[in-house]
Amino acid sequence: MSGLKIVVIGGGSSYTPELIEGLLNRYHEMPVASLWLVDIEEGKEKVEIIAGLAQRMIAKAGLTIEVVATLDRESALRDADFVCSQFRAGCLDARISDERISLKYGLIGQETNGLGGFANACRTIPIALEIAADMERLCPDAWLLNFTNPSGMVTEAILRHSRIKAVGLCNVPVIMQKGITTLLQCADEKEVVMQVAGLNHFIFVRQILHKGTEWLPEVIAEINAGRDPLVPRNIPPFRWPSHLLQGLGMIPCAYLRYYYMKDDLLRQELAEAGGEGTRGEVVKQLEKILFDQYRGPAPGSQTEGRWKGAAASTIPRRPAS
C-alpha cells in the first residue's frame, strides 16, 4: 500500500491528537504519507498549534509524515484517500448559545439531542453537504469518516443527499463493550460479542455473548447493583432506575438519560448554568488550558508525553458531551 493522504476537517479540534495517536499506532497497517489539517479563519491559531504538536508526535514515533495546516479546504481534499469530519459549526459560542436559549425556556440544550441537538443539526448539515459535494469533485473515491455531531443526523443527511462513501463513527459502543469486558472479567474484549440497536447517540445493547453464552441479564443485574463501567468518562456517574433496565431488557447508552431521566437532567443543567456554567462554557475555559499544553515544550518532554492524560482530565474525549 502506498502512503495515504488523510484530511481532517476541523483539524484545530482538541480531539485531533487522539486521532493522530491512532494513526501512529496503526502506521504499519495504514501508512500515512500526508496529514492535512483543515480549519476556518477563527480556528487558525488552534490548527497551527495542533500541527506543531502533530509534527512533534510524529518525530517522537520515528516516522516521516508530511503535516499541512491550511484554511483551503479545496486544496486539502484534492486526491484525498480518507476525510475525517470533526468540525463544530459556530464553534463553542454557538453551543453555549444553544444551551442558554434552551434552558431559558425550560428545555435541555445538550449538543446532540433535544433543542440543542436540533439547532446544531440545522447549522451543521448544510456545511456537511458542502463538504460532500467538494469530495464528489475532488476525491470521489475517498471515504468520509464522520465524527461531527449530531453524528446520526449528519451522517444520514450525507448518505441521503450525496454519492460519496461515508460512515458515521462514535466510540460509545466501544466504551460499553470495554465496560462489559471489565464486568465479565474477560482477558480480551474481542471475546465479547455485543449486539447494538439504535442510532447515535441513542443506542441499546440488546445481546451480550461471551464464548457463545448470553450474559445480558447478569450485566443488567451488575449495573442495577451499582457497578456500571459502561458510562463514558465525560459523563458524571449516575444510576439508572432499576425498574427501567428490567423493563427494557436492554442496556441504554448513557445519552438516553436525557430522555428517561429528563427532569433530573434539566435540574442538573439549570444548577450548573447558575454556577460554574453550562457544559459549553466549562469546555471553552478548559480548552484554553489544554491548548497551552498542546503548544508544549520540546519533543519527549513530560508535558507532551502527558497530552493524553491532560485531554482525559479536561476536555471530554469523543463523543463530545
TrEMBL record:
<dbReference type="GO" id="GO:0005975">
    <property type="term" value="P:carbohydrate metabolic process"/>
</dbReference>
<feature type="binding site">
    <location>
        <position position="149"/>
    </location>
    <ligand>
        <name>substrate</name>
    </ligand>
</feature>
<feature type="site" description="Increases basicity of active site Tyr">
    <location>
        <position position="111"/>
    </location>
</feature>
<dbReference type="InterPro" id="IPR001088">
    <property type="entry name" value="Glyco_hydro_4"/>
</dbReference>
<dbReference type="Pfam" id="PF02056">
    <property type="entry name" value="Glyco_hydro_4"/>
</dbReference>
<dbReference type="InterPro" id="IPR036291">
    <property type="entry name" value="NAD(P)-bd_dom_sf"/>
</dbReference>
<feature type="binding site">
    <location>
        <position position="170"/>
    </location>
    <ligand>
        <name>Mn(2+)</name>
    </ligand>
</feature>
<feature type="binding site">
    <location>
        <position position="95"/>
    </location>
    <ligand>
        <name>substrate</name>
    </ligand>
</feature>
<keyword id="KW-0479">Metal-binding</keyword>
<dbReference type="Pfam" id="PF11975">
    <property type="entry name" value="Glyco_hydro_4C"/>
</dbReference>
<keyword id="KW-0170">Cobalt</keyword>
<feature type="binding site">
    <location>
        <position position="201"/>
    </location>
    <ligand>
        <name>Mn(2+)</name>
    </ligand>
</feature>
<dbReference type="GO" id="GO:0008706">
    <property type="term" value="F:6-phospho-beta-glucosidase activity"/>
</dbReference>
<comment type="similarity">
    <text>Belongs to the glycosyl hydrolase 4 family.</text>
</comment>
<dbReference type="InterPro" id="IPR015955">
    <property type="entry name" value="Lactate_DH/Glyco_Ohase_4_C"/>
</dbReference>
<dbReference type="GO" id="GO:0016616">
    <property type="term" value="F:oxidoreductase activity, acting on the CH-OH group of donors, NAD or NADP as acceptor"/>
</dbReference>
<dbReference type="GO" id="GO:0046872">
    <property type="term" value="F:metal ion binding"/>
</dbReference>
<dbReference type="InterPro" id="IPR019802">
    <property type="entry name" value="GlycHydrolase_4_CS"/>
</dbReference>
<keyword id="KW-0533">Nickel</keyword>
<keyword id="KW-0378">Hydrolase</keyword>
<feature type="domain" description="Glycosyl hydrolase family 4 C-terminal">
    <location>
        <begin position="196"/>
        <end position="296"/>
    </location>
</feature>
<feature type="region of interest" description="Disordered">
    <location>
        <begin position="295"/>
        <end position="321"/>
    </location>
</feature>
<keyword id="KW-0520">NAD</keyword>
<keyword id="KW-0326">Glycosidase</keyword>
<dbReference type="InterPro" id="IPR022616">
    <property type="entry name" value="Glyco_hydro_4_C"/>
</dbReference>
<keyword id="KW-0464">Manganese</keyword>
<keyword id="KW-0408">Iron</keyword>
<protein>
    <submittedName>
        <fullName>Putative alpha-galactosidases/6-phospho-beta-glucosidases</fullName>
        <ecNumber>3.2.1.86</ecNumber>
    </submittedName>
</protein>
